Amino acid sequence: MQYFLGVDGGGTGCRLRLSDASGRVLAEVSEGPANISTDLEGTLRNIIAGSQAALKAAGLPPSALERVSAGLGLAGVNISDSALWAGRLPFERARVVTDAWTSTRGALGESDGIVAAIGTGSVFASLRGGHYSQIGGWGFHLGDEGSGAVLGRMRLAATLRGVDGIAPLTPLGRATLADLGGAAALPGFAKDARPADYARLAPALFEDPDDPMAAAVLNTAAEDIAALIERLQEGSPLPVTWTGGLGLLWATRIGQRWPERAACGTALDGAMALAFSLREA
Amino acid sequence: MQYFLGVDGGGTGCRLRLSDASGRVLAEVSEGPANISTDLEGTLRNIIAGSQAALKAAGLPPSALERVSAGLGLAGVNISDSALWAGRLPFERARVVTDAWTSTRGALGESDGIVAAIGTGSVFASLRGGHYSQIGGWGFHLGDEGSGAVLGRMRLAATLRGVDGIAPLTPLGRATLADLGGAAALPGFAKDARPADYARLAPALFEDPDDPMAAAVLNTAAEDIAALIERLQEGSPLPVTWTGGLGLLWATRIGQRWPERAACGTALDGAMALAFSLREA
């Protein structure tokens, strides 16, 4: 009997799903963090502990690990490095990819398409004839176009341009100042703010999209997002699937520019699909 | 006999100059940091110690402090708070302003004008009929238009847009990747980089201004700078004085848009001018 394990690993925790060869789910468990780039040993430990917990929950002996094909989508993976340590995984077969790959595969299912994943950060990916491409996603300081963190920072910067008189200080700009304690408080906020702190400032832009400052920020970010999606379209249109905490807000605002398709599954579904791709011919 | 003291206080140290009523310099000394917002007590201690050292170097007794008019330009000053502690200074008369004010006054001398101070950070100020205005300077995350830190970050972000294929990957972009260890290394650099780390990446843009990526970054930053200067011009042209580590590079690139004037002094000169403004009528 062959078993299939999907691992959706992230910086705060990982989820694992075990199924039999027919796709019937035998167990689903959670474990601790799986960020390979910050803690390789801890990640390996958590993946092994989670796998054993899944076998136990399915009523299988630990030795069944030797009949498991595993698909792992992990945060912080550098694919070229993963070859060095993937041999330490206890599975019969394993394939390790980035969590962006499993999210994309989960969202698109069997179909070609583009995924715009926009939450606190952002990343853009396509599957085209089985070929995976990923662009954007360079992080808060250098990229993450249209993400909550970047939008929140743009909101504060635009407010200060209003204070300086080189852009209109709109009602949303004045509300921003009132909420954060005035212009003089903003550099201190920015000095300590993490991406999640900025991201909390982003939804207000969508709630008040006719405010001229909100409109300017959203239009700039929309063009950044559009450039990335157009790049992935490569001239031959694929439908776009919007995911992440801001995905639906962006879809409502600019989704009509491209054919659109709802997500058909999660990153854990994508990890399962990866595991099944290792099935013996 | 009246004495006049100028204090140019910064986060890494302060300089003090003592002169007599005729403007003759009696002593000039250095002391420790003077950042009011991070260490009020230490700043007061350093200013008092520096003042006493200046008197001693000039052959004057400590009691001469009571005949000193002092002009202080300090980093981290919030003018409304300074009223609360300025009374603890031992001088006959004292006035406390931001170091941006003394830099501006020093650069402009007696004349009206605009100062574009552009180094690792940036700030823009004007003196018009004795009235001081300051805009920009909101720090690396939210402003500091055209500064070394912001230019360095723009260089990395533009390089990654080149990698993603939404902008040209130019010779300077390829050199950026080679210098920093490839695209995958850039998010890690950005995660830990301080403004000074980014600022080291800025001069290369000016050295290779015909590279299309460098040109695009410099043109964007130039328009940001121009908007701030035009705002301070208020429609009636004042000459622009360029200061800071990148001031001359920017002056060469865009200085011809406005009348230009060389800096006529330093922040310490500005602090002395402030001290003399307290002279008894």
From TrEMBL, chains A, B:
It comes from the Bacteria. It holds the Pfam family BcrAD_BadFG. Gene3D superfamilies: 3.30.420.40. Residues 5-245 form the ATPase BadF/BadG/BcrA/BcrD type domain. InterPro entries: ATPase_BadF, ATPase_NBD, Euk-type_GlcNAc_Kinase. CDD domains: ASKHA_NBD_GspK-like. This is ATPase.
